[in-house]
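Lab notebook: predicted structure, single chain.

Context: the supervisor wants predicted structures on file for every construct in the current expression panel, including those that have not yet been purified. This is the next one on the list. No modifications to the sequence; it matches the entry in the shared construct table.
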Amino acid sequence: MNFSDDFFDFDSNSFFDDEKLKSKVKECKQYVSSGQTIAYLNNIEDTIQLCLEYDFTEDGIYLVEAALEISPYSYELWHSKGIFYNNLFDFEHAYKCLEKSLSLNPTDVEAMINKSISEDNLGYWESAVKTLETALTIEPNNEEAVFNLGILFERKDNFEKAIEYFKKTIYLDADYSDAWYELGFCYESIDKLDEALKAYDKFLEIDPYNASGRYNCGIIHLKMGNNTRAVNCFELATTISEDFSNAWYNLGLSYLNLNRLADAKSSFNRAFELDPFDADVTLRLAKTSEAMGEDDYAINYFNATLKIDKSNIEAYIGRGNCFARRNNYNSALHDFAMVIKLTLAEKIEINSNEDLKKDLINIYNIVAPYQKEQSYTTEELNHFAKFFFKLGNWQAACNVYRKSIKQNPENSSAHYGKALSLFMLNKNQDAVNNLQIAFELNPNTESIFLDKFESLDSTQLYIKITSML
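Prediction complete. Output recorded below exactly as produced.
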């Protein structure tokens, strides 16, 4: 059985059908299974190259292994096998195959480039760099080797070094689109936004229908405050790729900056359809609905956000604002308390250092005698209560603050500390009552509170809760 004469006769305009390749792979497999590998070795090797080009990876490995049984010292076959394994992300096998290929032909630059890919993915970064540098001693103007060196340094966040290699790549080949793209990314990463934009624009001259390129240009314009241009870029990105959720999301942000709320909501809705489990998207939908006066929709989306991210302070504030406008005091109070608890959880860091733990335990042992009516000053009691609080023992802290208040009812700090402890114990109304007393005893306490919980300042939620004090 022979291939047709024109099977391997390709020009730049030829199109190869997957079904046709599948048929030829099947024929080659039949040659192998019938023991005719050596007779049709050239055809099998040509088919292997087609498998590389069209990503028929498993079939390619089958054929290359069969060919290697006949030609075990073919560096080209070992090279092809290494590429197939790279494509399967089996980098250990790829590395061994490419090492074998280079042992048979030590000056094969393409094999070195593919070997560096294996090394990089195996964590052998320095070896990957050395391999590419060796390749450049053989072919100093090999733009692929230069480009891949740039990628290696980019991945190490050495953007300045990466830029050097990407610029050299472009010098060697001005139409090397990937180099322009990565150059834009590197400039963006070091906040040289004008240079990043020039690089992305050049990339898009070469590849105008690339959604990622349009998206990246949009991100640059968004960072620079060019919201109208950002809208244009993101609209193009979503036209090219309708399921580009990040582009829809950032299109929504651009519309928001232009106060085009309805368009923003529409864009966020599309992003939500594509990725309903992204808390950033649901939060933006909620806040946009809130800004449009659609509290019902806003509450639903705040609920969706909290279902994804139970610790989202912005969602609790937003939902609490909606409840406050509806005069739903209990629900608003719940969200107010959650903001306080989550904020405190972020600020209180119990150090894992063993010495600190021992110090806290010693303090605990010192404080314990207060239960036996040992005399402490109000200041000492407040100090001890703060340590209980840092230990996460809210009930003990509350008890010590209660003793401090009994000793000195006019002590605003004790009422304030007790309020925070009660919030942590989910005794929210009692906590608000103590907060009221603390504010009345010392008006500066409210400033202290808002400094600590600045996200609540001037919110409908805070106004509603404090108006009930």
